[in-house]
């Protein structure tokens, strides 16, 4: 019996519901996407016209408060969900296969939670209190359409975790942090809301720090204030990119900014 087969049987023995979860090898896609290309995206004309019911059926009247921009395979969402069970969080990802992976992962987590609850309602429906009902994902280009999804001051946290560094100078305009885009981030972030950035590329870290520090609506949070922040710990450890940097012994450069009341 092959090692791969034996590993699958062992995994199913330890967790009979393991087969519900998506496997990345079936969702392969290029690591990065051009944010200036036409990706045939669907987006609401305004935040009030977005139907969130299919994303958060257990929370029909709540609004999203956390946004993970370029959420990748959804590690941060999954890590934060049980820590803030009453807070709605949204991952925004431009790559179609990766977005589908996150959607399938969340669906599997909800179903597993429902079955683990053991209730009659849980057996019939994946809507169970807690149970990853507070996270979802949309395929979207946040560089173009963020205000289409969120109202002014709606968000309390925005995450930019291991974004594409776009090393070449002519590609710097495609970086997710830029003076023009910071105006939009400030618009959707409420006063005292926090922007979290982390990267393993020092040059990109310096770029983000420079532009965020230069923008009048943001102020950097001193590192000592961030000590013990469970959200920051998840940004370091929960994402697939963060785990890869950890395995390779790389550095993680962090900078967090608070939205001023201006």
What is the topological layout?
Elements: H1 3-14, E1 64-69, H2 75-80, E2 88-93, H3 96-117, H4 120-124, E3 135-139, H5 142-149, E4 155-161, H6 179-188, E5 189-199, H7 202-214, E6 218-220, H8 230-237, H9 240-247, E7 253-259
Parallel strand pairs: 1-2, 1-4, 2-3, 4-5
Antiparallel strand pairs: 5-7, 6-7
Describe the structure.
By secondary structure, the protein is of the alpha/beta class. The protein has nine helices and seven strands; from the N terminus they run H-E-H-E-H-H-E-H-E-H-E-H-E-H-H-E. The chain has a seven-stranded mixed β-sheet, sandwiched between helices. Strand 4, helix 6 (179-188) and strand 5 form a beta-alpha-beta unit. The termini are far apart.
Shape field? globular
Provide mean pLDDT, rounded: 87
Largest sheet: 7 strands, mixed
What class do helices, strands and sheet pairing give? alpha/beta
- In whole angstroms, the N-to-C terminal distance is 65 Å
What topology, given as strand order, has the largest sheet?
A: 3-2-1-4-5-7-6
Number of strands: 7
Number of helices, where a helix is a run of at least 4 consecutive DSSP H or I residues: 9
SSE pattern, N- to C-terminal: HEHEHHEHEHEHEHHE
Low-pLDDT ranges: 4-9
Features:
single chain, 262 residues, alpha/beta, 7-stranded mixed β-sheet
Concise summary:
The chain is an alpha/beta fold and 262 residues long. The chain contains nine helices and seven strands.
């Amino acid at each position: 019996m092959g090692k791969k087969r034996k590993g699958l049987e062992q995994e199913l023995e330890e967790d009979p519901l393991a087969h519900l979860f998506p496997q990345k090898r079936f969702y392969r896609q290029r690591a990065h996407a051009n944010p200036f290309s036409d990706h045939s995206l669907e987006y609401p004309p305004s935040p009030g016209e977005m139907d969130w019911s299919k994303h958060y059926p257990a929370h029909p009247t709540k609004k999203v408060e956390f946004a993970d921009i370029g959420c990748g395979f959804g590690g941060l969402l999954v890590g934060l969900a049980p820590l803030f069970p009453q807070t709605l969080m949204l991952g925004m990802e431009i790559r179609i296969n990766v977005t589908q992976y996150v959607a399938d992962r969340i669906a599997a987590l909800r179903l597993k939670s429902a079955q683990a609850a053991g209730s009659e309602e849980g057996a019939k429906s994946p809507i169970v209190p807690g149970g990853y009902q507070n996270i979802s994902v949309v395929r979207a280009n946040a560089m173009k359409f963020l205000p289409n999804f969120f109202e002014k001051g709606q968000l309390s946290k925005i995450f930019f975790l291991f974004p594409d560094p776009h090393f070449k100078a002519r590609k710097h305009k495609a970086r997710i942090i830029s003076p023009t885009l910071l105006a939009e981030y400030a618009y959707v972030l409420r006063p005292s809301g926090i922007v979290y950035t982390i990267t393993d590329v020092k040059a990109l870290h310096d770029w983000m720090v420079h532009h965020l520090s230069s923008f009048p609506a943001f102020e950097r949070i001193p590192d000592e204030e961030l000590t013990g922040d469970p959200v920051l710990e998840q940004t370091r450890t929960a994402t697939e990119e963060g785990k890869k940097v950890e395995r390779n012994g790389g550095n993680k450069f962090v900078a967090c900014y608070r939205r001023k009341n201006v």
